[in-house]
Amino acid sequence: xxxxxxxxxxxxxxxxxxxxxxxxxxxxxxxxxxxxxxxxxxxxxxxxxxxxxxxxxxxxxxxxxxxxxxxxxxxxxxxxxxxxxxxxxxxxxxxxxxxxxxxxxxxxxxxxxxxxxxxxxxxxxxxxxxxxxxxxxxxxxxxxxxxxxxxxxxxxxxxxxxxxxxxxxxxxxxxxxxxxxxxxxxxxxxxxxxxxxxxxxxxxxxxxxxxxxxxxxxxxxxxxxxxxxxxxxxxxxxxxxxxxxxxxxxxxxxxxxxxxxxxxxxxxxxxxxxxxxxxxxxxxxxxxxxxxxxxxxxxxxxxxxxxxxxxxxxxxxxxxxxxxxxxxxxxxxxxxxxxxxxxxxxxxxxxxxxxxxxxxxxxxxxxxxxxxxxxxxxxxxxxxxxxxxxxxxxxxxxxxxxxxxxxxxxxxxxxxxxxxxxxxxxxxxxxxxxxxxxxxxxxxxxxxxxxxxxxxxxxxxxxxxxxxxxxxxxxxxxxxxxxxxxxxxxxxxxxxxxxxxxxxxxxxxxxxxxxxxxxxxxxxxxxxxxxxxxxxxxxxxxxxxxxxxxxxxxxxxxxxxxxxxxxxxxxxxxxxxxxxxxxxxxxxxxxxxxxxxxxxxxxxxxxxxxxxxxxxxxxxxxxxxxxxxxxxxxxxxxxxxxxxxxxxxxxxxxxxxxxxxxxxxxxxxxxxxxxxxxxxxxxxxxxxxxxxxxxxxxxxxxxxxxxxxxxxxxxxxxxxxxxxxxxxxxxxxxxxxxxxxxxxxxxxxxxxxxxxxxxxxxxxxxxxxxxxxxxxxxxxxxxxx
Length: 785
What we know:
The chain is an alpha+beta fold. It folds into 4 domains: 11-16 and 55-217, no CATH class; 226-397, 2-Layer Sandwich (Beta-Lactamase); 450-459 and 567-667 and 699-784, Alpha-Beta Plaits, CATH 3.30.70; 460-565, no CATH class. Helices cover 44% and strands 19% of the residues. Strands 17, 18, 19, 20, 21, 22, 23, 24 and 25 form a 9-stranded mixed β-sheet that branches. A 6-stranded antiparallel β-sheet has the order 13-10-9-16-15-14. Mean pLDDT is 80; it is low at 397-412.
């Protein structure tokens, strides 16, 4: 039998090649020449195998008909691509695949006979509902999109885990309803859409085997090992692991990046003031191969002169391909001796530098010679920015670890850049159809001008903490009252102990709330207090009613003990929605002036990126005026968002303020589309400067003060060139005449950022009481003229 990955499913699966056979029949009947003769030849060859058209459910039949199936599918599996493509025949979610390309077969052979190819993080619940959604879309015209990226993890012959994106082509599959397939009403459809979590309901509505899934699909794999490793690295570095755990996770990630099984990670911190290395970092001892058990050491003792000059003075990587040979040639080198004594045969020492300050040295070591060298050391460039940022964060704020969250947006292609993807897809189809080996080119837009802006909700974290404290304090006080009532029914000593603990929680909350305070309280209550309250035997009726009322109040959706948190979340949602609607509406207008790439993010506020340039719209004549018009538009729309928020604020549960910022960057840059993440990233080492400024600038301060550059009710414009100041002064003048911006304009310097200095700022006051009716109806084109 053809066994699906999950036995319980609404489909009866029949493997069939009827669609491609019908295509050959059409060619044989209507075409002429070689194409028709080839089609007739194939039809003649498969004529003794009616099951290929009618469908079959036997896995053994696949093996018996393997050769004729291969001939039938030769057009889809061209021999010239067999060593390039990772492709096979399958059915979606079926735990069987065959007719592999040579490259696919070699990958599976390397994984071993015991390896089963399964989809990562895909369980029965997701599978069943995904199958049902396919049926609903096919037979009832719904638009239920349950698709998500599918991945498989396959080890290679050396045991290194490689990661592949799975792509399915279902052009040769059809769904047929059997007589047992139920007829659904609109009421049934509505009920299903509102009950994703009720798997029993879906199984009852879509009984097993009531539909036939007939045909075959093409499964293609794309190697995303490096991208997956970098993504995992980001997650590890942005997490809250302590240093040893972080080193372990980084070790496995770098194995994928360098394709080396024998690899270990170490870190040696650097004390800038004393000029000494230390193996103590993050408040605890970490593995340091340079120090080899020593707590600290002078730099010139730990490094030889060559490595000292390259790492400390030049800030470059230092690679040793063969430690034994290096030590032989440098007998006085403490570094070579230290590594040799630990059995290390090759190594890379990478300086971790931020703001031109050495924070420490990342150590990659192997017990095999030549695994690391000066050439592959540069693979670290893809990871070092994240390592530098993470180590700096952990070093400077160890007591208040921040679990950074990266929200990835899987978006469709923006209309302004869709044309280039269409062109490349057409090239690929034309070349491969002609039997030409063609690799899709990366999509890059060069020489585009970036515009970045944000309207950020001020003190959102502080407000959330206050709402959590208020809710938790009320909940704990209610529990204190209940425990005093329970005291007469159980051990007085036990109750007093719990009362002291609860009072301790209340006192801790009055001082400050930590990252884990809420979870600590919840765990304590679930472990010790709730079992006591639910032990109602012997409690009075009044007490039982009060306990029941308490448990009603802890409901996160309706309970009073979550009222402030719900109000806070509602506030954030209302502000974000209002700001996003304004931005999206105005974007439709701005695209008419000159097409440009646009993306918007909702976090604690609204951020946006815009890229404009000749390469995005090559059929149009891009000129400086197009950039200027978009810059004026950006300034005006941020002012509009700030004014709209001012009027909205008075109706919010929490009257939160917003701060606004615009980053001016006049040098053109390049952006590259990342296929795995489906969005554009800044491309090129120089352009990283722009990303650094963008990520750090809103937390910066006015040079020489503790004052934040962003303030409520004001727009801060960050720039670095005199020409930029003059340009934006003109825009400000225009908006002042419209009464949108106040007359006072502040001008100041910004504190230095990571490797960036000399930034300046203009800070404008928004006229928050501006007439909303005029604001909502004005025209940007007239404003520009």
